[in-house]
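Worked example

This section walks through a single chain of length 289. The input is the sequence exactly as stored; nothing has been trimmed or padded.
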Amino acid sequence: MHLCAHIMKTVLLAAALMMASNAAAADNPFKPKAPFKSAMVHYQYKGSETGQATVYYQGTIMAEHKQTSTTLWGMDQGQQNTITITKPNEVIRVDLNKRTASATGNQLAYMAEEYEKLSPAEKITVKKNAEKMGQSMLNFFKGGQAQMREGTLMGKPVNIISMLGLTTYAWKDNGVLLKQEGSLMGMKLDTVATKIEVGAPVSAEQLQVPGGIKVVFDQKADQKQRQMAKQMMDMLKDPQFGQNRGAMAMQPQDNNPQGNAQRSEPSAQAKEQDPVKEGMNLLKKTLGL
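Given that input, the structure is written out below as tokens.
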């Protein structure tokens, strides 16, 4: 089920990139923002993954407590009992079954750091290209059949994003998931928020790693995130983004000289699309797809 989680992150990131250009000139669109002062959102999982989860919000800290079991292609994949704690500068993933925990920096924090290094002109370019990349991400899969529209769910305004047979309902303006449904690669997804408690008090224990579990910082994964953040910002600040930069590099290679000769002059459409594919590949690596 990790693949589905990554795809959901990709979809929501696409929407976030599209909204980045709407931020005021002085705003950092990658700086983590608190969706609530405090809140609890309860979820029910059905389909291939069954169980429940509760996400606790306290300012800029979020902790997801999840207990589910998965059956995939008729085979029992076991039970998952996890906690994911997201802070402005750190993400901690806890496996309660194994009593282990690993941590890295927050990818968005690294993006925000790179953004602050830019000149005012480069920041304007980044916001324009972020919107362009967001739309390209939504159109990347299924030959451009991805759709995003607005609606209402549970009395809340939502962005409804459909792609790859999945439909995701994200609370408008804060990106909180309210519902996801559909099928992907034989997996049936059915996740829905069953209760939203905005303003509910959240205890400190819900936002911490349980006692007795040692947190190990994953230096290798963290370094990769830093590198990806820099590469993505370098790409977004390029005024030629989405034009012919990198088109030749993205052409498939083989040992057929004639075939290579035929590819020496890529079409205008390929020149336009290849940098977008380059960006998508980078985003997929960033999210671990």
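What to look for: The first helix runs from residue 2 to 20.
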